[in-house]
Amino acid sequence: MALSTSSVITLNINGEKRTLPVDHRTTLLDALREQLDLTGTKKGCDHGQCGACTVLLDGSRAVSCLQLAVAAEGREITTIEGVADGDRLHPVQQAFLDFDGYQCGYCTPGQICSAIAVIEEHAAGWPSAVTADIRPEAGAPALTTEEIRERMSGNLCRCGAYVSIVQAVARAAETGARRSADAADGELTA
Asked: What is the reported pLDDT for 139?
């Protein structure tokens, strides 16, 4: 008896459940682009080395070209199309616009998804390869240019917009920190 090589799966993408038939070898990237018409996620190297296909899986960044679609079933998938809140851009998207963190724009969706995760990882106190003091009691390191460059190093930009990308990530992190502080102040005064 031959085993089936395809399945019907349901993916939770940008808060919406989408059911589709897939060959078991179909990558999440190909399912998003070819079957669901979510073409914001870009196909770059198709080997997990450039970051153009980065999406958020359960809030963590993942290169979708190395993720099988069947393995993503039951997980929360956020693509660039699901980052904004309606017409209101995500702070990272706004920072990329403000600082010209793009040139041709091809890598930008993956850069933005990675930056969102980088900011969350940093806020949670995760160290990077360049973090000097990784002891838990040291707390989160300052989000310096060196930290941002290291944390974003999995995303390549052939146009060389790295300086602007780093500035955009730093600004978005500051904006997020200010919003968190303002929210906490609001809770204390309420």
From this structure: 81
pLDDT (tens digit, 9 = 90+) per residue, 23-70?
999 999 999 999 999 999 999 999 999 999 999 999 999 999 999 999
The pair of three-digit structure tokens given for residue 165, joined into one six-digit string: 């990308």
What is the distance of C-alpha 115 from the center of its chain?
Answer: 6
CB 151 within 8 A of CB 118: yes
User: For residue 41, which of 77, 95, 7 has the smallest C-alpha distance?
Assistant: 77
Whole-angstrom distance, CA of residue 181 vs CA of residue 130: 27
**115 closest CA partner among 72, 160, 176, 73:** 176
Strand order in the sheet with 60-63: 16-23, 6-13, 76-78, 54-57, 60-63
Rg, C-alpha atoms of the chain: 18
**How many whole angstroms separate alpha carbon 117 and alpha carbon 111?**
10
Give the global pTM.
Answer: 0.90
Residue-wise pLDDT for 157-185, tens only, equals 999 999 999 999 999 999 876 665 565 55
139: left (phi over 0), alpha (psi -120 to 50) or beta: left
C-alpha to C-alpha distance for 133 and 55, rounded to whole angstroms: 29
